[in-house]
Design brief:
single chain, about 290 residues, mainly alpha, globular
Length: about 290
Amino acid sequence: MRKEEGKESERQGFVAKDYKDPPPAALVDTDEFKLWSFYRALIAEFIATLLFLYITIATVIGHSRTSAHCGSVGVQGIAWSFGGMIFVLVYCTAGISGGHINPAVTFGLFLARKVSLPRAILYMVAQCLGAVCGTGLVKASQKSFYDGYGGGANYVHHGYTKSAGLSAEIVGTFVLVYTVLSATDPKRSARDSHVPVLAPLPIGFAVFMVNLATIPITGTGINPARSFGPAVIYGHKQAWDDHWIFWVGPFVGAALAAAYHGYILRASAIKAALGSSLGSFRSNPNM
């Protein structure tokens, strides 16, 4: 039966591939600290998050300043700003640091055993520092507008409960991290090699779609660093009162996405239970 499926794949122009999962990342890998590539990755995460916050927060402030005029970019423009910057920055940094630019994404990849614990922690530190610096640049360049139009800080908007805000952050981050894990899954690359996928594109588009849905609720966090930077620089009480939502929600959403992708879609638990007999598979384009 499998031979017939392979022949059918070849007739359709597909090439069947054997695949074996790469080994999981070590929980603690001290050798990483000896590599220049490790520190280069931290710098890449810092700069990428700085640029992400600068462009997106400047867009939010510009929208608030011109919302009464035709020149406003509107909610769709803000969503495109966030999604477009993620596309650009993931494309530019994926080969250096993996292009996380988000502590929730880093946390999800850590749970999926894609990165070690020290790398995950230092990535998150670099991302938060980059977010503070990027937001600080916006305030330094347009202080009066920044202070007068909310500083781009996240909080639960009027008319919504904190539970609604938390739910929006959980679901939104689930969509993002699920997309990241799916778009970068080497198993899928082997199985669907006939379907070229530029990973930054679906990731950026996921951010765009989530922003459209959640901007009216929380201003869209789904990225603790994105929420942390404006909270530090703007310092408004409301931003800090709701700030826990923008850490708890994304981390819960990332954990759920990692569990769903690993134990349901990829059946990692079944593989672990049955041993190496399921460690490789012959790809089937009809799967």
